[in-house]
Amino acid sequence: MMKLYNFEISGNCYKIRLLLSLLGIEHELVPVDLRQGENFEPALLKLNPRAQIPVLDDDGTIIWDSSAILTYLARQYGGERWLPTDPLGMAEVVQWLAVSENEILYGLARARAIKLMNKPWNPEECRKLGEQALEVVEQQLAKSSWLAGHTITIADIACYPYIGLSGDGGFSLDPYPAIRQWMARIETQPGYITMPGLMRVGEG
Ligand SMILES: N[C@@H](CCC(=O)N[C@@H](CS)C(=O)NCC(=O)O)C(=O)O
């Protein structure tokens, strides 16, 4: 069975849990407690030399990095829907994967990790990058229901978790109406699952 090396409060791991659930793929979660440093255990380092999770094991095929795992799952199990194959459609998805790995990670995710995990990053820098992330996503969603193309794709799945968790890092989504409407659209997808601490806009 497919295995996901997972930590419940990690937004990067939630990206993968969410896509697996939306795709209806049965899987086993292998817990890796980052607070206990379990990501540095030899068995995990053998799978991912970066000592990070998520890591996916699909019947012996090992993939690390959330964007890479989303790409693999979309292509292998999602048909055209989650990652288009036409050059422009694919490039548009990759643009937003890049945002998820830059402003969203270094801004929103790190601001949260400072608060929850006592990570030693600069709060001012995180705040600035986090606000840039929210601005750029809001601008796109004011023009379009989804980040890339006309349907939900892995671009949305990659950007959604740390935006929904941004309250933990001290951000407010009040100034971002298009983001809140987009979150409500994601919440109504068949197979949607949430995670601890995630803001649910559809619940009122
Ligand atoms: N770019 C990587 C980042 C993964 C990452 O930062 N994972 C965190 C958990 S969210 C981790 O494993 N951190 C290890 C640590 O805290 O030592 C991805 O998208 O998978």
UniProtKB/TrEMBL annotation:
Signal sequence region: none
PROSITE patterns: GST_CTER, GST_NTER
InterPro entries membership: Glutathione-S-Trfase_C-like, Glutathione-S-Trfase_C_sf, Glutathione_S-Trfase, Glutathione_S-Trfase_N, GST_C, Thioredoxin-like_sf
Record's keyword terms, sorted: Transferase
GO molecular-function term, one example from the UniProt record: transferase activity
Pfam families attached to this UniProt entry: GST_C, GST_N_3
Domain GST N-terminal, chain residue ranges per copy: 1-81
Domain (GST C-terminal): residue spans on this chain: 86-204
Descriptive protein name: Glutathione S-transferase
